[in-house]
Amino acid sequence: MKKTGVCILLVVALLFGAFLPATAAGPKEADPETGELNSRLPPTLSADDREESEFSIRGLIAAEPFIDIRGDGGKPVWDTKRYDFLEVEPTNPATVPAALWRHARRNAQHGLFRVTDGIYQVRGYDIANITFIAGKTGYIVVDPLTSVETARAALELLYRYCPIKPVVAAIYTHSHVDHWVGVRGIITAEEVASGKVRIIAPAGMVEEAVNENVLAGNAMARRAAYMFGNLLPKGPKGQVDAGIGKAVSTGTVSLIPPTEEIATPVQEMTIDGVRFVFQQTPGTEAPVEMNFHLPDLKALCIAENVSAGLHNLLTPRGALVRDGRAWARFIDEAIDRFAGDTEVVFTTHHWPRWGKARIADYMKKQRDLYKYIHDQTVRLMNQGYPPAECAERIQLPPSLAREWFNRDFYGTVNFNVKAVTSATLAGSTAIRPISIRSRPRRRRGSTCSTWAVPAPSSPGPVRTSARVNTAGWLRRSTTWFSQSRKTPRPANSWPMPWSSSATGPNLPSGGISTSPGHRNSATASGAMPHSTGPGLMWSAPCRSTRSSTCRPFA
């Protein structure tokens, strides 16, 4: 276990190293078309976001003018002054969409908040929230943030305005690092070893943390730098928000393994006199995750399974693809079990919501959000649409799209549709299974170049391809020529861009011209053939956008 912990910390430290500031290329002004588009809210989104704004500041006990947390040697860990531009400009500039600007201003709220009697949150001290539940003798801490320094600062803020009592337990709701690596900022390993402090987590939490942060740590760290935009300068022409928070803190990371695991689907436990009912939700926002209900306080912690925006089924940083159907099912289960006895629901990102009717509506629409994306993707997939076309065609219905808490501030419908196709078809991204054996880009590029533009003296593209490339490429190419006339085109298919105007003297009708001086729309645009089938083939424009640009299927 000790070696495992060291490995995790090393990789997490590398991950945060990718987030350190770096010099970026100069930002550009928005062009007039972009500025005009950003100036208005999406037509499907409600113009009234007063409830979201009210909830984001409700229960505020205290807030510092700004937060400047430093680590060893004065290294910056967390600095809210970087986002002062959000207060200076109350309306969105031309470079930022109007909806995102409003959401970013709400995410910029920071301080100590009262959720309900005995429950407090510190928000805006990291990308996630840290929650303190008052027990008989001390505090039960939920998700101690991403850095030791930010977790320690949050505890100090609590002690300035609430009774000073020891931390008697910590709860990790799931395996993602922004919810546990700051734990040594609130407790010590000696306190845990002596039995003074309990640490509770879902079963398999450490194993999943290893899988995500060690096995794929280097690759994921690189991708996370792009996903969160932490290398960009902060400002209207750089990084504005991270969707689920402002950014990831860059302080000291730590790990204290759990002392107790939640091993059954629903498990009751008393911690320092407070009754908990844990609900495991595996395969949702994280491989292992759990909600918990506090019956005596009529409060529900829904972890990261619901939030104030659409979450990721396919996360750009490369975490495991999430199961939208399971996600919806576990939200539905939480509604059935807990919603009737809940007056406030709080999450590990964003802000709580109060009132039974509001909570029920919120959770049902978040449930329907993920179920709709899953079901519509499967429907189109079974009709033969490839992932890219499914992603372009699927739009949320008005009843879901109008809600601010369903808006794509973090995840997107497009990405999530592709997650469903990937999970359902075991990673396949095209209609034909042969595409699983794709060629490296360099080999594929040279093959396509040789095929599309042979030397004037060459005997023809088929024989040229056979001479310089593998037999596998030749088989896929000649298969199309021999079968294209035999395979009827589906009635609802969109006309291919390489119709009669692209026919050349060396190829059958419907082929790609290779005659000297002839440039069809595909070769002029620099597009590459879709080598996966049928045969050598240029992709159809997306049916939903009816674009005239030729491009390969995604």
Concise overview:
This protein has 554 residues and is of the alpha+beta class.
Explain what this protein looks like in three dimensions.
There is one protein chain. This protein starts with a helix and ends in a 29-residue tail after the last helix. α11 packs across α14 and α12 runs antiparallel to α14. It contains 18 helices and 16 strands. The protein has 554 residues and is α+β, with helices and mostly antiparallel strands.
Helix content: 25-40%
Radius of gyration: 27 Å
What is the CATH first-level class name? Answer: Alpha Beta
Arrangement of strands in the largest sheet: 1-4-5-6-7-8-9-10
Quantity of strands, as a count: 16
Q: What is the averaged pLDDT score? A: 81
Distance between the termini: 42 Å
Low-confidence stretches: 14-24, 460-554
Share of β-strand residues:
5-15%
CATH architecture: 4-Layer Sandwich
What class, by secondary structure content?
A: alpha+beta
Please, what is the CATH homologous superfamily? Metallo-beta-lactamase domain
Tell me the overall shape.
globular
CATH topology, by name, is Metallo-beta-lactamase, Chain A
Largest pleated sheet: 8 strands, mixed
Question: How many structural units, i.e. domains?
Answer: 1
Count of alpha and pi helical runs: 18
Helix and strand arrangement:
Layout: H1 2-17, H2 32-38, H3 50-57, E1 60-62, E2 68-70, E3 76-79, H4 85-88, H5 98-107, E4 111-116, E5 119-123, E6 130-134, E7 139-142, H6 148-161, E8 167-171, H7 189-193, E9 198-202, H8 205-215, H9 217-228, E10 260-262, E11 266-271, E12 274-280, E13 290-294, E14 299-301, H10 324-338, E15 344-346, E16 353-354, H11 356-382, H12 387-393, H13 398-401, H14 413-424, H15 441-452, H16 461-468, H17 471-483, H18 521-525
Parallel strand pairs: 7-8, 8-9, 9-10, 14-15
Antiparallel strand pairs: 1-4, 2-3, 4-5, 5-6, 6-7, 11-12, 12-13, 13-14, 15-16
Helix pairs in contact: 1-8, 1-9, 10-11, 11-14, 12-14, 15-16
